[in-house]
Input
Amino acid sequence: MPPGPHPLLAQIPLTVSPFISLPSAPTLPYTYQPLPSTLPPSATADSSGNEREKIVVSRSGDAASPEDIIASCQALQAHIEKMQEDAERTIREWEDNLREEQLAEKRRLAPGWLDRDEKILQPAKMAAGSTVAGQGQSANLMDQQADETSDAKMQQPVPSREGDELDRAFGSMTMR
Output
């Protein structure tokens, strides 16, 4: 190295400010002793003898190496994934139990209904000219008469009883 300042640094002007004081050299106490030339093994060294540098320092003063932080994060992530899987399994079990209870309740109310393929119940319709064995007459004669009377009743308009309902609710009012 050349004995003088670097050429680029020589181009930067220095200013003297009364507000800035340069640090002074510390004075050593009389009891100062230099460190021994052989130091005991470091407490931060791992089992392989390689010393991990603890370069990350938290506000609380705890120091850790990046490898320790990565290992801690991976352990935390594995713990969270395990908890999430446990929670999902618990929810699935709960839903399965609920479904089984509902199915058991339906089977209790209508036994055999869920076990068949036919789900829509419809009455069997007989032809108009069919006869019942042993009687010799039409089996639908009574049904036809009942159908005709029910059709006639359904076609008649039902008188409105709204006025009667209002009288019952509020009492009859006489005009004066």
Summary: The mean pLDDT is 75. The longest helix spans residues 66-109. The chain is about 40% helix and 0% strand. The longest strand covers residues 56-57.
